[in-house]
Design brief:
heterodimer, A: 481 residues, mainly alpha, two-stranded antiparallel ribbon, 20 helices, 75% helix, 1% strand, globular, B: 200 residues, Four Helix Bundle (Hemerythrin (Met), subunit A), 0% strand, elongated
């Protein structure tokens, strides 16, 4: 058997992360008692180091290695950078929360690192096998993470729900993959594309059924409308720091999964999956925006908002053009930045023995801490799509790409739902600025990390809205190469 | 050839039958035993494909180790039979509809014609010195090395997660606090009361 060693350079980020995970694990075992901060700092160094590696690899020509199971392309690097940076922010926000609530901090940091590793693997996977393994590596730590807070039964319930739903989704995905494998006789995305273009006319039914199963599995992970039941329950039940993590980086990974499976592996089935995504997107926007109005729990409200936002993101994929894929990428990155800020504020406002959950807990935040209230205002305006904010340009991008693809009724419908959605975002702003506070004591953030993170995060929402060109171009370029 | 076919059909039927019994049997211990039968039957199917390493692995690892552990857990849990049965009946109509739909779609979609030429003959038999184990090992450590390492990472995650979930300090446990015990001295523990308040 002839064997040439694969080129390891493209996977250097993953290898660095895995190596550092072992270092962090040992450091937590032996040095954490003497020096409590060491696990946290090593974890941050790992994530930042991997992000620096991804940035320095940017511009590297597209390369496929490990016998076609790994791809290095601008799109995967872009998503990796944001996955790692958002994980860094998650850690900065949740450090005081983890300490106050006596959650096993070493395990929490390690599970986040494992999850970040899995997401990196997933975004550069180029065969069904590595896509599935990446998916499991990133979602297994999430299930365990939610259950880490063992003194609250509601967390156990959320973890169990998430685990079972995730297992069903993986089952769907694997079943679809097996059907496609049966038809194409390969797990490699490149070979699947060429096999499928040959066989799409002779066996369309089997491929379509495979596509439906695969799409169901991937959409389940993203949490869009007919597969959305778990999202509000898990968001509500999980401890705030874990909800923060679930609602950010995994969305980027789920997006990458959908992109690889539908856009890159099955362009031959575009008409079929376009119809499927149209139905899913319309349903998500409707369900998300309308049910969110009735929520008085802010975590549930933001969960429905995430369902609606994923629907908007799908619009970019429906357009079916490189421009559409680019704007969907920009949308998902913008959403992750906003969601990071919103759940970040929820996390840092929770104290020992107090989980911030109700919208009414935000009452009069302006008089208690004006800076935090301002940041929340920016994020809520951005989610509602008010002009000088990143959320506005994200929505404009996906709608414009649809119009250019000559689909006009869908953007019109999306706009109607966006207006409905503006109500519940603005309600949070109203509660913060115009209602009397229940508690009069000012909110003082003891943690410098969290203060820094929320300031950068809120201002990023604002400045990315003022100067969006660079980001949009980066996202567009990833698909034009 | 005819014997091979006979073996295939007998053990396939056994596999399907025992798998069905796993989900419908009333007692969980019995279900676990049927799962063992299912593993053994599928090991025979592997054997027919001349994949003797995988066949033996299925018996050694699953039947020998995993199922033994599983039996212990099942026996320790003492599951409530009635409750399980009740739910089974309650969800049965819904489940039947879903299964009928799925089977219908699959029969419609995956007709033999769609699977290409199904009557592919068995591949030529391997030579006597052909080692299935060696070939598998070569593939795992060359072509699939990346996926193989990832599978290892999943096991590591399982270890970290299960330790994180089970090894926890209880807040109300009655364990001795060694530090407090060593630091205790006579002055803290012993109070000498001179005036007993008892006068003659």
């Amino acid at each position: 058997m002839n064997f040439t060693a694969p080129d390891f350079l493209p996977a250097i980020g993953e290898m660095f992360t895995l190596g550092m995970i072992c270092v962090v694990m040992l450091a937590y075992l032996f040095f954490d008692k003497q020096n409590r901060g060491i696990t946290y700092f090593l974890t941050q160094i790992t994530l930042l180091g991997a992000a620096v590696i991804a940035i320095s690899l940017y511009g590297h020509p597209t390369e496929i290695t490990f016998d076609g199971s790994f791809i290095l392309d601008p799109e995967s690097l872009l998503l990796k950078i944001f996955i790692l940076l958002s994980s860094v922010f998650v850690l900065m926000y949740s450090r005081p929360y983890i300490r106050d609530n006596e959650i096993a901090h070493g395990e929490f940091y390690l599970l986040i690192l494992f999850s970040a590793l899995g997401m990196q693997v997933l975004v550069s996977a180029y065969s069904f096998l590595t896509l599935y393994l990446g998916l499991e590596v990133f979602s297994l730590p999430l299930y365990a993470m939610i259950a880490l807070r063992h003194n609250r039964p509601v967390c156990q319930e959320a973890a169990m729900k998430y685990f079972i739903m995730g297992a069903i989704a993986s089952g769907f995905l694997l079943y679809g993959m097996s059907l496609i494998y049966g038809a194409c006789q390969s797990l490699n995305l490149q070979e699947i594309v060429s096999m499928m273009s040959l066989s799409v006319d002779s066996q369309p039914m089997m491929l379509t059924v495979g596509l439906v199963f695969i799409a169901a599995g991937a959409l389940f992970k993203l949490g869009v409308a007919p597969f959305h039941m778990w999202v509000p329950d898990v968001y509500e039940g999980a401890p705030n720091a874990m909800t923060l993590f679930i609602s950010t980086a995994p969305k980027l990974a789920g997006f990458a999964l959908l992109l690889r499976l539908l856009v890159e592996a099955m362009p031959a089935l575009f008409p079929q999956w376009q119809y499927l995504l149209i139905a899913v997107a319309v349903l998500s926007m409707a369900v998300g925006n309308i049910i969110a109005i009735a929520q008085d729990n802010i975590k549930r409200m933001l969960a429905y908002s995430s369902i609606a936002n994923m629907g908007y993101m799908l619009l970019g994929l429906i357009a079916g053009t490189p421009r559409g894929y680019g704007s969907a990428t920009f949308y998902i990155i913008a959403y992750v930045i906003m969601s990071l800020g919103a759940f970040g504020i929820i996390t840092i406002l929770s104290r020992k023995g107090f989980e911030l959950e109700k919208i009414n807990d935000f009452k009069g935040l302006n008089s208690r801490n004006p800076w935090l209230a301002l940041m929340m205002l920016l994020i809520m305006f951005s989610m509602a799509g008010v002009p000088p904010s990143v959320g506005f340009f994200a929505k404009v991008g996906v709608l414009e790409s649809l119009v250019r693809a000559d689909i006009v009724w869908l953007p019109a419908l999306a706009l109607v739902f966006a207006i409905i959605g503006a109500y519940y975002y603005l309600r949070v702003v109203k509660v913060m600025y115009f209602d009397e506070p229940i508690e009069k004591t000012p909110v003082i953030l003891e943690s410098f990390d969290a203060q820094l993170a929320i300031s950068i995060n809120g201002l990023a929402v604002f400045f990315l809205g003022l100067f969006p060109t660079t980001m949009i171009e980066l996202c567009q370029k990833a698909f034009l190469a | 050839m005819i014997i091979q076919k006979l073996v295939f059909y007998v053990f396939s039927a056994l596999l399907i039958g025992s798998s069905t019994m796993v989900i419908v049997s009333r007692q969980s211990v019995r279900a676990a035993f049927f799962l063992i039968v299912a593993f053994c039957a599928s090991a025979v199917l592997w054997m027919l494909l001349e994949a003797e390493f995988l066949a033996l692995l299925l018996i050694f690892v699953y039947v020998g180790a995993v199922m033994t552990l599983f039996m212990f857990v099942v026996m320790m849990l003492n599951l409530d039979k009635e409750a399980v049965q009740e739910k089974f009946v309650r969800y049965l109509p819904f489940a039947v509809v879903v299964v009928a739909l799925m089977v219908g779609v699959l029969v419609f979609a995956v007709k033999p014609g769609h699977l290409g030429d199904l009557s592919v003959a068995m591949k030529a038999h391997h030579a006597a010195d052909y080692s299935n184990t060696k070939v598998l090992g070569m593939l795992l450590y060359t072509r699939y090395v990346y996926a193989f390492e990832l599978a290892a990472v999943i096991l590591l995650i399982a270890i970290v997660a299960s330790i994180g979930l089970t090894h926890r300090e209880k807040s109300n446990n009655k364990r001795q606090r060694v530090v407090a015990q060593l630091e205790a001295n006579k002055a803290d523990r012993l109070v000498v009361i001179t005036d007993m308040g008892v006068n003659e």
